[in-house]
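User: My collaborator sent over this chain with a note saying "see what the structure looks like." That's all I know about it. Can you take a look?
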Amino acid sequence: MDTPHTPGTPHAPHPPATKSGLPDENTFTVPEAWLPDLHPWRDGPTVPAAGVDAGAVDAARRMTEERLSWVAGLSGDPELLGAAQAQVRGEPSPLGAAVVAAVVTEDMPWREREKAGLFADAWAAEHGLVFAAVATAELGGVFVEVKRQDRTKDVPHAVRYRRDDDQRYASWHAGERIAKRVRALLAAADEATYREAAEALADRRRGPFQRAVACYLVPTQAEWVDELFTAAARSEQDEYVDMVLCSLSSTEQLDAFRDHDDRWHDYGSDESVRTAIARIGPAIAPALTDIADTKSYRSELLYAALGALPTDEALGFLVARLDRRNAHAAVIEAMERYPVRALRLLATAASDGGSDVAAYAAALLRRHALAHPELTAAVPPHAPGRRAGRDRPGGARHRVDRRRTGGSPAAAAGRPAVDATAPEGEARGRQGPGGARRAGRRLGSRRAAGVGRDHDV
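Assistant: Without extra context I'll predict from the sequence alone. Here is the result:
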């Protein structure tokens, strides 16, 4: 008898120590703050416990009964109508369940869309998890057309099969909740049930959107994901991007996706982008650095993600942008996650001339060394971190005469002293009365020059 799949344990917030006593900074651990939002996958860090919601069957039945008139009054594709009518008569099928759920949830307000996930538990409880998986895939092939009623709301009036150029979001806004719940149940299922579901889904991949649904539900089917990018057609719905992102497991697949569909960094939700990063791991760093500077409206997400990756490339990219608010914040988080790497890279940046980045790096390096004296002692004497640390604030090329400048890198550049551990967008003035107004004027002039903010380059 198959036993339930063992849920994965959440990744530790900090890497474990190595034999040398220094932290292991080459192992990627998913940030704890990401865990609640990840789309679960088999052997992932957030696989839920097996089991369905005991009250889902009654809740789904009540939602359906409240809108039976909509189902009865539908027009459209005869096959879909017949399946829906049979479902209502008590003759269930995955296609009939999908059509009824699509109609019932069509007008579900955004704030209530989580309730749609109850259909997933209801299907699994009444008919089994394989039925629920197939019904979800069928749901991905159904499109509900609406008409305006009483000038106040849209109501379903017809059903048809989804087309590749369908774009209206409402046709999947509840479906994505059902799909996410079924994906979670499959991630925790026993091996036999999981394999049976994958085999059943193989025949429910008739178009780009439905193929993406199948990949999303069982993301271990890597060959299905590969097929998404060899097909000529793609779905124009934004939710297609989310499902594909959550199905990726390699940089090769991400590169193929980028060639096939350039919307991934614009339309993927934060949760789906983090899921892709968590599944692919540190190898995704080059793709993130490619777009982080040109997508300023997503800089907080992308910079934070880079700060979670255990590579010099990722952290070095952020350190070079310490004069940008979100990059600066990501570096501060990474200093705790990868303290030895931060010591090295901050030291290198601090010794690189008299730029703002060097000043910020020098200040962070001092703070970091004071907070972790054991690390500075453990770094080899000729390592960059030790050499630059002795040449504070930023190495020989950045040394200034503090007796003449008031003791700060900012003053050396002819500017009033500020807290160099934060970009000037967050600076705390130390000028005394009236300093805040002067700092505000200075910030305005520096932002006009493109310094101290996240911007397109």
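A starting point for your reply to your collaborator: The radius of gyration is 27 Å.
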